[in-house]
Write a structure and sequence with these properties.
heterodimer, A: mainly alpha, two-stranded antiparallel ribbon, 12 helices, globular, B: mainly alpha, 15 helices, about 75% helix, about 0% strand
């Protein structure tokens, strides 16, 4: 009974507004059409080639698929059951965590220290340093790998030659199971530091100078200024950068490992994305199984990124 | 190697001069890791094979373009340059125009769907691109565009959409609302207002998006490797990779270095011309959110 009254009321209200609405509909319809025409191309491109492939992995991981034909066999969670008994997966996961955790800590420490140093106006040659440290971020990935091949190469390698000058014996940097993870890590740090340094420099330059002057008058050391003023005031930028870093460094790691070592020697530098590639296009043609690895990568990065956003939430300081 | 990794804290006892010296030494060591490999590559691209194996470090006896000549004649690098330029420019145009259009709707239409659409695009910034490879391969084959330049153009344009929408939305929000009002009073339609007034005004955002995406597209090998297999459609990155694989067997470092120098030139030019946008433009759009 009550609902009846409501619906009739609503109908009456609708009837009342229709004539008014009709006047507006021409403009309204034109506006809606404009919105549709202007949104559709970008939505379509993004949905089909970025959004859909990101979530489709979950579905593909429930099938056995050889990749050649469209022949897919539903196997439920079987791929995951196999994955959690796969020794290579655990090895790759261990390397993955080792490389990415250290990479994050070192890149952020380097980028912050460099940004603080190079925003100091008394520093000589800071423009030169900035340009050089940033440059690796723009070098095409394949060339980065040729460069580091020639650095690490045991016979013609630059690194062994430089060490030789000081009478230090060289190593097979990419062929030694004990060294290879750190060799990879170094290239990753080298690649990413400049970009984040520049981000942080911009953030630091936004901090008003008079805060530092007041701190100096109070006898605050440079070290304390960094932790009491600089870092708290750029906290928001650090957080955003951290999330962005966690997501993008996944691909950076893939590039470096895939080109320099292919995960070798003896899986010593295998990480999750390269293992995923090996399982699929890399020759094994277990595409469904590879997508189970991809799902683990997604969970590790996206969940971690969201978690970090939540955990690091602080009050923002108004400037 | 380890020296440049650890940045020591300022020494209290040494005074500020000693501290400056230490800081500068560490910074120079770090920059050396950038300069030396690049110089090594450039120098050795001009040496004959005999010169190279006699001494990697010596300056070339003369500027010898033999590797460049051979690379151009034998590796198909010119065709790959052609492919890459077409694909990158088309993808840039498509990405910039479509992302500017939707960003305009998000920033200025006041529509209810603005906010959900914006959040939808931000999702792309929270998911790693590597996991999309296998699904993209499947999609490309389903729509019968696998192994075409078209698929690379479309995928590139879609792939960087999040970043572009982010930058354009931020930019359009900074423009005053009176712009459109004036245009409407003059009788311009919504479409005219965007194409004739708003889009031309967004040049700074176009440059930021263009420069970053150019570098992204030019550097890509992974999507190209996944979506294209014909020799005649390959991009420069795939060309370098092929030479790198061949080099492991035949050790033709000179030719490999020569091709690398050629491939890096466009990026270097962009870096020199747009250095300010690259290292400064980040503040305007990409950081605040």
């Amino acid at each position: 009974m009550e609902t009846d009254i409501k619906t009739t009321e609503a109908a009456a209200a609708a009837a009342e507004t229709t004539p008014l609405k009709k006047k507006r509909t021409l403009g309204q319809r034109q506006k809606s059409r404009f919105i549709l025409v202007f949104s559709l191309p970008a939505l379509l491109l993004y949905f089909l080639f970025r959004f859909l492939p990101s979530i489709m992995g979950l579905a593909i991981s429930l099938f056995n698929w050889k990749g050649v034909s469209m022949n897919m066999k539903f196997v439920g969670l079987n791929n995951y059951v196999k994955l959690f008994q796969d020794e290579t997966f655990y090895k790759a996961l261990g390397n993955h965590l080792y490389i990415y955790v250290l990479n994050t800590v070192i890149v952020f420490a380097f980028a912050l220290v460099l940004a603080i140093l190079l925003t100091n106006s008394k520093m000589k040659g800071r423009n030169f340093y900035r340009v050089m440290v940033f440059f690796p971020s723009v070098i095409p990935a394949v060339i980065v790998n040729v460069l580091w091949m020639s650095v690490y190469n045991p016979s013609i390698g630059i690194l062994n030659a430089v060490l030789g000058l000081f009478g230090i014996a060289g190593h097979n940097w990419l062929g030694d199971e004990a060294l290879v993870r750190n060799s990879i890590l170094f290239v990753m740090v080298w690649l990413s530091t400049g970009f984040y340094m520049v981000l942080f420099m911009a953030a630091i330059m936004n901090i008003p100078q008079d805060i530092y002057e007041a701190a100096k008058i109070d006898g605050c050391s440079v070290f304390r200024q960094t932790f009491a003023i600089t870092i708290p005031l750029m906290w928001e930028q650090i957080r955003t950068a951290l999330v962005f870093f966690i997501v993008t460094s996944c691909g950076v790691g893939f590039n470096v490992v895939y080109m320099l070592t292919k995960g070798g020697p003896n899986k010593a530098s295998e990480i999750l994305p390269t293992y995923m590639y090996l399982l699929s296009f890399g020759g094994q043609s277990k595409f469904g199984y590879a997508m189970a690895v991809a799902t683990v990568i997604m969970v590790l990065t996206t969940a971690l990124a969201l978690l970090i956003l939540r955990v690091t939430k602080r009050e923002t300081y108004e400037m | 190697m380890n020296d440049s990794k650890t940045i020591s804290r300022p020494h209290r006892s040494g005074g500020s001069i000693a501290r400056d010296v230490i800081i500068n030494v560490l910074l120079i060591l770090y920059t050396m890791t950038v300069i030396i490999p690049l110089a090594f590559m450039l120098l050795n691209s001009f040496k004959t094979n005999q010169e190279f194996f006699a001494d990697f470090w010596a300056l070339p006896s003369s500027l010898n373009f033999i590797h460049y000549q051979e690379a151009i004649e034998n590796t198909g690098i010119i065709r790959m340059f052609g492919n890459t330029i077409i694909i990158v420019l088309a993808a840039l145009a498509l990405n910039i125009v479509t992302s500017a259009m939707i960003a305009y709707v998000i920033a200025r239409s006041g529509s209810k769907i603005s906010d959900p659409m914006y959040k939808f695009f931000l999702f792309g910034m929270l998911t790693p691109g590597v996991v999309t490879l296998i699904p993209l391969f499947l999609i490309a084959r389903t729509i019968h565009l696998y192994n075409t330049r078209t698929i690379l153009i479309l995928v590139y344009a879609g792939f960087e959409m999040s970043f572009s929408v982010y930058v354009f939305t931020g930019f359009f929000k900074t423009l005053p609302g009176s712009l459109e009002e004036a245009a409407y009073i003059d009788g311009a339609s919504r479409y005219q207002t965007f194409w004739k007034i708003l889009f031309p005004l967004s040049k700074p955002a176009v440059v930021t998006v263009g420069v970053f995406n150019f570098i992204e597209y030019w550097s890509d090998y992974l999507l190209a490797m996944t979506l294209v297999s014909d020799e005649s459609k390959k991009t420069v990155s795939l060309g370098v990779m092929k030479l790198q694989v061949a080099n492991a067997v035949r050790t033709e470092w000179g030719q490999l270095f020569a091709v690398c120098v050629l491939v890096i030139i466009p990026v270097l030019l962009i870096y020199i011309i747009f250095q300010r946008q690259l290292t400064g433009g980040l503040t305007a759009g990409a950081v605040k959110g």
